[in-house]
């Protein structure tokens, strides 16, 4: 018999399917050659020497002539700082200009240097670049939400191999983000406490889904994971907004993020994944109802008609087992 | 500049990206050999002769010894009629037994006969089998939602080539379905009219996204399509529940569904797709606030970190253009 588990942060239900269950090592994809990429590709627009092939840099990190991280506008930006945010309506059809921002953070000059192979210092600098971009983009009072994310590998939706992340600044708070925030607010109104801090407390007490705990962060496979090996990194010090992370936390976050990605890469042979930083909407950052956190979604399974139609996901791996597997890697 | 459009049935926003826009024919996938399958595969559990390899039939359609459609329990059922629906809670962790139903509708005895190649009569019978299963499964008072869906092709999440659909009977109304239903209810409370009927009226008036209109149905690419070539088939006669469809409507639906799938298959060279029948929760079927409808999602693009993190989808094809393209096929 399977089990239905509810995610307390979204109220979504997940079917933990024992009938379809796989052992953690069944998710290892054999025969991938992702580490055999060259460290420089002359056709790659993100490699040094091809700077002219990207839009002008918004920020550059590094010393002297050599950059370590470059931030550029996305050449195929989904949102751009043009037009305005007024809604136009015609009957039930509502639209507005695609106003906003869309940047690419080129994480390293090396074409093949994914986070697991970077120095700790480089990962710290990436996280600080994320913070800098969030702070910069939200200066525009039209911006209501900052979404920082990373697509690693083709089945995670990227066509460019060169390690990079993206930041989108949206003029709209979409229902998915508003809803998550409202659920946390309701919990705060009821209990006087942060929902995510309560959840973190329960997860640490249960222990079995925790992968790693550092001074400032905990990495875990949540109780109601939608996806096999879904991983959250949650701060132990309450903060609604990622953009308020302080330097000592960025150093600790870099270590735990790198370690989680090394374990994932070693344990599952470099799977494709998406990484998302969830943070409070800009206008709500000063409130204490939300906890920013990182979600990593390895792309090991596909959402099919049932998931798309119901919002109920079928997870074929128990987070207790995948977390134990991850703890055993290295 | 791109455009943000809002889906009035979910309030979700979609970015219609002109910078990334593709022409409709760019989505054609070349070199697929999907029509070269044999009409019988002795290793296929759904082919005649292998009936013993599936769980016992719940329903069989056809005359004499030869079946035309078989309905069986899913061998790897996500939900089964075992346990109960009481919730168990421990701190923030809430769960319940995976109670419910999960059936497979084997649509044809022929291994390679997809809907575009079936007789109209066979498609009518499939739709009536859907209706029969919905009516049967909801006799159980624990069942709150019926989800009928079809996964066509590997990237739509199926591993079995033999044409089949699935029905899941869930003891829980998931937030995605509750939310859609609540938005329709709110519209009814405000206007005294069905949101979906109003939307259909606006779409038919605009005309440019309509593909085909029959006596009882309209097929269209909705204004705020999340996915390129996303297609809805909406009934013109108001009804909350698919299970109340009458025979004259099933015949008309079979014709328009088959035609839509032929156009999709011819126009894009048999793309993988998911098909979902959206219908009111069981306990709300007697109310008039919702309109059941069919959604077809061709799997031509991937949801990446931005979509998963924000719920805002980037659509790289305008529904006005894809609908015109579809009208031109045949």
Describe the structure.
- The structure is a homodimer of 330-residue chains.
- Helices cover 26% and strands 23% of the residues of chain A.
- The longest helix of chain A is centred in the C-terminal third of the chain and has 22 residues, at 247-268.
- The relative contact order of chain A is 0.17.
- In chain A, α1 packs across α4 (247-268).
- In chain A, the strands form 3 sheets. Chain A has a 10-stranded antiparallel β-sheet, sandwiched between helices. Chain A has a 3-stranded mixed β-sheet with strand order 1-2-15.
- Chain A is an alpha+beta fold and 330 residues long.
- Chain A is built from 6 helices and 15 strands.
- The model of chain A has no long low-confidence stretch (mean pLDDT 95).
- The first copy, chain A, has helices spanning 120-137, 175-191, 195-206, 247-268, 305-310, 319-328; strands spanning 3-6, 13-16, 57-61, 69-73, 88-90, 93-97, 101-106, 145-152, 164-170, 210-213, 217-220, 231-235, 273-278, 293-298, 313-315.
- Chain A has one domain: HIT family, subunit A (2-Layer Sandwich), CATH 3.30.428.
- Chains A and B meet through β1, β2, β6, β8 and β9 of A and β1, β2, β6, β8 and β9 of B.
